[in-house]
Amino acid sequence: MRAGRGAPAIAVLGCYGAVGRSVVRRLREAGTGPLRLGGRDLDRVRALAGTGSGGPAGAEAATGGAATGEAVTGTAGAGAVEARAGADEAVAVDLRDAAALAAFCEGCHVVVNCAGPSSRILDTVARAALAAGAHYVDVAGDAAVRDRLTAAGLPTGSAARRDPAGHGSDGPGSGDHGSDGPESAGRGSDGPGSGDHGFDGPGSAGRGSTGHGSEGRGSRGRGRAGRDGSGRVVVLSAGMMPGLSALLPRHLAGQGFDRVDRLTAHVGGVDRFTPAAALDYVASLSGGYATPLAVWRGHQVIPRASRPRRGVELPHFPGRVNAYPYLSAEAERLARSLGFAEVEWSSVFDGELTLAALARLHDLDADTAAGELVRTSRLEAFGRTPYFQMVFRMEGEAAGRPVARTLVARAADSYELSAAVAVLAAGAVLRGLVRPGLHDAADVLDAGAVFQALLDDPAVTRLEVVDDVSPAVEVEEGVL
Ligand SMILES: NC(=O)c1ccc[n+]([C@@H]2O[C@H](COP(=O)([O-])OP(=O)(O)OC[C@H]3O[C@@H](n4cnc5c(N)ncnc54)[C@H](OP(=O)(O)O)[C@@H]3O)[C@@H](O)[C@H]2O)c1
């Protein structure tokens, strides 16, 4: 086991997956200093860390920081850490190997979990991180992970949401959170580790929910954290959906609405499934994550109130697309917290192949079904320019008049968006902006700051809020 002293502040597990690669790149761009990178295939980890593949552990220079050529650590085998002081560390770790996972987490300040599928990993990495005294950020991790961690005694931190300036960007209806009281600290100075790492960029996206918690101040605080999880921060759902899919509507609700009544969300495009994302998608179909064809109406869930639509023109989507309505647990929470009377949410498939594959999935076991999704989504994207788009149209009232606004966010793929949110969450945690306990990213990140960060993000090809005076135009052609 390594001591915390000298270990990188951030460990990234699943570093060479689609989200992991982008997280690593973004963390480097944010100036985090050396990272600890982990995955099952050491050659792939080494390639990412820049440690090469031929030599003994730690013998190669890494690229993540200013290598000083000192302090080679670890021995051969799973969990062994390859590093030079000031450089990225490469670690072979299979998360099913408890000892290797514990060694991977040891000494780091925040473990960012990009390994998947989340539906199978559940709280395995979170528990190892907490046991090592580290904070934890999960690009996935929804209700099932939350329930397990809660059952294990980790306090939920949702009541700690607040904005120290007293005017968050959440807009109307967001007054259900924000009651920390006068002990609440200002942004960015109290938390563990703040100031002991060169993390200049995304940390400002935190909502500033630092409390005095159970930690000491400054970087020495991490040594005093309980290995039972006390004093630790867990941020789940720090990805595109769930995650950004709640943050962007929260931001929009703050754009000149006195009251919000109705939200229509269209989310999708031409996006390939990775193996882990496909397995999670398949797992989500069998319950818990969302209610297919449901809408939120009259402040409650109405099952089977909608229907799939084929060949429709949706505002801001190119050509005709297919829309599949559902209400996720996250959308329901959003509806409750912002006070919407109506929410209609649809996945958008720009193409026929993936949709057709989805219709066949129920006959297949999970691994075969996921493989089919990966294959067909790649086929669908072949010869086309993939894109992923989120369109939120919000209706409400301002100064006694009806208002409608639309937020459009577009990127080359959804994995970049997930990585962006995960890095913003890691930054907020590192800066001590998140109170100890269990949170969803959408509850602790400042929606306005996330929007601003995405405006400067090269992976985001469109991001804007547009006034929308005419009703959404949909030309319906048929029903699935
Ligand atoms: N919130 C969101 O919107 C969102 C969006 C995208 C993805 N996600 C989630 O993020 C996670 C990663 O997605 P992804 O698209 O990056 O998937 P991916 O490209 O398939 O990568 C998954 C990664 O997990 C690693 N992994 C799998 N089993 C492992 C094990 N036993 N030990 C160590 N590493 C292991 C894989 O390594 P090997 O290749 O060696 O197996 C790979 O590096 C998934 O749970 C996915 O659902 C969430």
CATH superfamily of the largest domain: NAD(P)-binding Rossmann-like Domain
The secondary structure category is alpha/beta
What is the CA-atom radius of gyration, in angstroms?
22 Å
The total of beta strands comes to 19
> Would you give the CATH topology of the largest domain?
Rossmann fold
Distance between the termini: 56 Å
Q: Give the total of domains.
A: 2
Unreliable sequence segments: 53-76, 159-171, 173-203, 209-224, 471-480
Form type: globular
The first-level CATH class name of the largest domain: Alpha Beta
The molecules bound to the chains, other than polymers, are: NADP nicotinamide-adenine-dinucleotide phosphate
Helix content: 25-40%
Helical segment tally?
Answer: 14
**Largest sheet geometry:** 11 strands, mixed
Mean pLDDT: 81
Give a written overview of the molecule.
- The chain has 14 helices and 19 strands.
- It is an alpha/beta fold.
- It folds into two domains: 227 residues, 3-Layer(aba) Sandwich (Rossmann fold); 194 residues, Dihydrodipicolinate Reductase, domain 2 (2-Layer Sandwich).
- Helix 1 links the parallel strand 1 and strand 2.
- Helix 8 crosses helix 11 and helix 10 runs antiparallel to helix 11.
- The longest helix is centred in the C-terminal third of the chain and has 17 residues.
- The radius of gyration is 22 Å and the shape is globular.
- Bound molecules: NADP nicotinamide-adenine-dinucleotide phosphate (NAP).
- NADP nicotinamide-adenine-dinucleotide phosphate (NAP) binds next to helix 1, helix 8 and helix 12.
